[in-house]
């Protein structure tokens, strides 16, 4: 990864430089923490192993709810969340639900947009590019004959997702194109959807 | 799809049967609406074409927010949601954020669990199987060296997801196994993650 710290002033006293480095933010990210994190991981690649988790419980009909709190990463259990996140999924009436949450297809689009955006911000910051705004529109096609089992020749799930980002950034168009090609190929969720991920699904009867 | 309506009492007056059929619920689903929906789609397969949507906006640092409201399906624009759903993603401090929402990897696990659960409920209902409870635990492995671009040999995104469901259902174990194998192969999100989905990503500079 290319890395640049553009704003260090080397003729300032060392304490001043340290302070500036430690508090400097670009795109809302603490650049010192970003570079420290990268250096740590370079020296000890096992710190890069993360294991994310979720629990989910069926409520009724098309409603279920996930609870998300701890994860393993950087060599230890994370304890930064004092209370869990909770998210419900439901379906609209036309798909037999009551709109108590977005449906799971929409949540997939949400997490895809979120990940490409965060990956863009991360690598823009590492390159010293200031981002002013990012807004994204997504749509994805599903033929529900697949899920309903009405026609086994119809693919189950999304057949295509289209995603358009509008970005304001303080850099030439060519640099933005390079940044976006890099973000696309380095976004974990983009690649978890566009490439196959093995899922081990087990169940037991209670 | 195998379909059974087990609870119609054919010696009752026709009005009574109709009323029972229209209001009958199994697993919180209106069984009449389920079968009507399936019959409609069988007759007019274009009604099965859905287009889901999301909009996302970068807020600051690792925080962004999605807005989800309309979609196209069953031959028309859906207008059932009077207000949009909003969901933020963020990262924990160790990944440079401030926990203003679950991260995108966790949202992927959430939507996977939600979809397999809803697909299970849908097909259990179609088979006349009463489900008492479903609870699911998921974990997924990510090596963040991939996303950071520190080692191009490391895959970007989840390398494996493990998912365990505990189910209480009023049916023999063998029927539950058949149901779950069916749900696994007919869950849109399970198949959108375990198989590759093409994503067209475009951007323009504002």
DSSP strand content of chain A: 25-35%
- Taking all residues together, what is the mean pLDDT of chain A? 91
Major sheet of chain A: size, sense and barrel closure?
3 strands, antiparallel
Described by its quaternary structure, the protein is homodimer
Residue ranges of chain A: pLDDT <50 for 5 or more in a row? 1-13
Radius of gyration of chain A over all CA atoms, rounded: 21 Å
The portion of residues assigned to helices of chain A is 25-40%
Largest interface: A-B, 132 and 132 residues
* Head-to-tail CA distance between termini of chain A: 49 Å
Element string of chain A (H = helix, E = strand): HEEHEEEEEHEHEHHE
Report the strand count of chain A.
10
Helix/sheet category of chain A: alpha+beta
The number of distinct helices of chain A, counting runs of at least 4 residues, comes to 6
Describe the structure.
- Two copies of one chain form a homodimer.
- Chain A is an alpha+beta fold and 206 residues long.
- In chain A, 34% of the residues lie in helices and 31% in strands.
- Chain A has six helices and ten strands, in the order H-E-E-H-E-E-E-E-E-H-E-H-E-H-H-E.
- Chain A has helices at 14-23, 31-43, 104-126, 145-148, 173-186, 188-194, and strands at 25-26, 29-30, 49-60, 63-68, 72-73, 76-77, 85-89, 131-143, 158-169, 199-205.
- A three-stranded antiparallel beta sheet of chain A has the order 3-4-7, with no helix packed on it.
- In chain A, a hairpin with a 2-residue loop joins strand 5 and strand 6 (76-77).
- In chain A, helix 3 crosses helix 5 and helix 3 (104-126) crosses helix 6 (188-194).
- The longest helix of chain A has 23 residues, at 104-126.
- Chain A is globular.
- Chain A starts with 13 loop residues before the first helix and ends with a strand.
- Mean pLDDT of chain A is 91; it is low at 1-13.
- At the A-B interface, strand 2, helix 2, strand 3, strand 4 and strand 7 of A face strand 2, helix 2, strand 3, strand 4 and strand 7 of B.
- Strand 9 (158-169) of chain A pairs parallel with strand 10 (199-205) of chain B.
């Amino acid at each position: 990864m290319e890395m640049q710290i553009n704003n260090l002033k080397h003729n300032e006293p060392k304490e001043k430089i340290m302070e500036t480095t430690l508090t400097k933010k670009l795109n809302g990210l603490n650049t010192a923490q970003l570079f420290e994190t990268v250096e740590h991981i370079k020296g000890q690649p096992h710190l890069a192993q993360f294991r994310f988790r979720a629990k989910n419980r069926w409520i009724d009909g098309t409603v279920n709810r996930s609870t998300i709190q701890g994860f393993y990463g950087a060599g230890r259990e994370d304890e930064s969340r004092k209370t869990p996140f909770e998210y419900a999924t439901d379906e609209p009436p036309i798909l037999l639900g009551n709109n108590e949450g977005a449906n799971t297809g929409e949540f997939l689009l949400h997490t895809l947009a979120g990940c490409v955006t965060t990956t863009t911000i991360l690598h823009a910051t590492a390159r010293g590019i200031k981002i002013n705004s990012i807004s994204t529109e997504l749509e994805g096609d599903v033929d529900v004959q697949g899920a309903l089992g009405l026609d086994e020749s119809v693919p189950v799930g999304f057949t295509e997702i289209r995603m358009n980002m509008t970005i304001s950034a303080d850099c030439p168009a060519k640099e933005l194109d390079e940044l976006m090609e890099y973000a696309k190929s380095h976004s974990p969720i983009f690649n978890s959807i566009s490439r196959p991920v093995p899922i081990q699904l087990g169940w037991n009867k209670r």
